[in-house]
Amino acid sequence: MSKRTPLYEGKAKVLYEGPEPGTLIQHFKDDATAFNNQKRGTVIGKGILNNRISEYLMLRLEEMGIETHFIKALNMREQLVKAVDIIPVEVVVRNVTAGSLAKRFGVEEGMALPRPLIEFYLKSDELGDPMVSEEHIMMFGWADPLELEEMKVQAIRVNDFLSGLFLGVGIKLVDFKLEFGRIFDEDGNVYIILADEISPDNCRLWDIQTGNKMDKDRFRHDMGGVEEAYQEVAKRLGVLVDPNKPVSGDGKPKKVGKKAPVKTGKTIKSPVGDASNNNDI
Of 209, 166, 182, which Cα lies nearest the Cα of 265? Predict the structure, then answer.
């Protein structure tokens, strides 16, 4: 990789200035963190696998009419993405009790919820990413009511699609985290689009037959086999790559049939940063 000045370095990715205005290069690292950065480590090849898994899932979502920041893959670790103003609220969708939800309410992991549960968390390492309500979000201006509703609608659509996609390869989508950003057109209209990544770093994925965990929980709880679990997810999705073999620049065909995003309300700028801080859900 040529020498470039990073615009922002997060826990799992580095953002560089893109080749054209309004674009960024998103570089996936092998670094792994958990418990709000209290636990750190390295998972060899994780960046390559997350890059390919997220690319594949973003393209499938685009085909379903869900606008994302993904433009194209550049190489094994990097993507060209749209520069967005990240909304400082993480949207967590839960289908099964696990993680902090099970701990918070003292319930057993693995209980299927009667319907998808949506939770919101403020993106703030300093505050430990506290859970917030819709009223908090609107009261403090992190998102307006129209933006918040759009985020919820998109989150449910993503959940419906990904649940079916993973089911088809023998994986249960337990829960996952999404982040959204604002993008503006030449007339000043603001759109809400999906940003960050979708990978085993921010999804809980369990094997349907065995219940084996195939995500970052293996790193969080010292279960071992982290790289193998990520590789298995990539293999089932058909995107497993040999990290020792070079690949072509784009990696995937250019997406088609993109559906225009829904316009939302007022235009509010927020800092552009690394949308993936990989906090625990």
Answer: 182
Kindly give the residue spans of alpha helices, DSSP state H, lying in 127-252: 134-139, 145-167, 217-220, 226-237
Query: How confident is the model over 115-125, as pLDDT tens digits?
Result: 999 999 999 98
Across the range 72-98, mean pLDDT stands at 97
The dihedrals phi and psi of 267, each to the nearest 5 degrees, come to -90, 115
Domains of the chain, first to last: 6-84+225-237 (3.30.200.20), 85-207 (3.30.470.20)
Residue with tokens 């918070």: 104
Q: What is the pLDDT of residue 36?
A: 67
User: At 71, is the pLDDT very low, low, confident or very high (cuts 50, 70, 90)?
Assistant: very high
**Token duo for residue 131:** 């859970």
Number of H helices, E strands in the chain: 6, 15
Q: DSSP letters along 15-33, please?
A: EEE-SSTTEEEEEE-SEEE
